[in-house]
Amino acid sequence: MIWSNSLLAQTPKPDPALDEKVKKFLDSQSRRWFDMNVPAVDGQLLYNLIIKGNYKSALEIGTSTGHSGIWIAWALSKTGGRLITIEIDEERHKQALENFRKAGLSDYIDARLADAHLLVRELKGPFDFVFSDADKNWYKNYFKDIDPKLIVGGCFTAHNVSERGYGAYGGQREFLQYVRSLKNYETSINDAGAGVSISYKRAEK
38 or 88, which is more confident? Predict the structure, then answer.
């Protein structure tokens, strides 16, 4: 991977040893991330959003084998935060745990094997950053369950959402139309990778 020169420059809590370990692991896996993982450009986007917002309490819906979770937790290691990530498939969950360990980020991650349809409702929060990358037809429901637990100033992101292609149809489109209808959210789309919607909560209602 070609690392951005500005990627680490803005981090508030530099940890050179951890940075090197994470970068080495990500580079070693750069051609092996499959099974519903995000591309690296989207991972770096999530990292940058967390650093910029100084977010500390993050939720990921859909761990897969951990690529996005590594980027999120790496950023949280700088802000003093922690990630809860949910995966329903046991084999992917186990592989994610191993990947988190190898990347040196296990201490920053609470990885749960569960049905997100149920667990997201039960989580108390509050959260200041959310990344949704599970079943697309449930995106709107995940958002509705999390909205009351997302603080003002918080950020809700969703993967495979765009103005074009696959991300412009089905559950993604329904979710995007809904969140854009809310006056207390400001939503944009980043299409550099597979499409990420970025919704900032500006007020409670």
Answer: 88
> Is-above-0.70 flag for pTM?
yes
What distance in Å separates the CA atoms of residue 100 and residue 103, rounded to the nearest whole number?
A: 5
Mean pLDDT over residues 114-120, rounded? 98
How far is residue 53's CA from residue 49's CA, in Å, rounded to a whole number?
6
Report the half-sphere exposure of 124 (CA within 13 A, side-chain side). 0
